[in-house]
Amino acid sequence: MNDLLERLHSVRHRIQKACISAGRSSDAVSLLAVSKKHPASKILALHQLGVTAFGENQLQEALDKQSKLEGIDIQWHYVGVIQSNKTRAIAENFRWVQSVDRDKILKRLSLQRPDKLGLLDICLQVNIDREPQKAGASPEDILQLAALAKGLENIRLRGLMAIPRFSADPEQQHDSFRRVRTLFDELKDSGHVVDTLSMGMSADLETAIHEGSTMVRIGTDLLGKRDT
Question: What is the value of pTM for the model shown?
Answer without folding.
Answer: 0.95
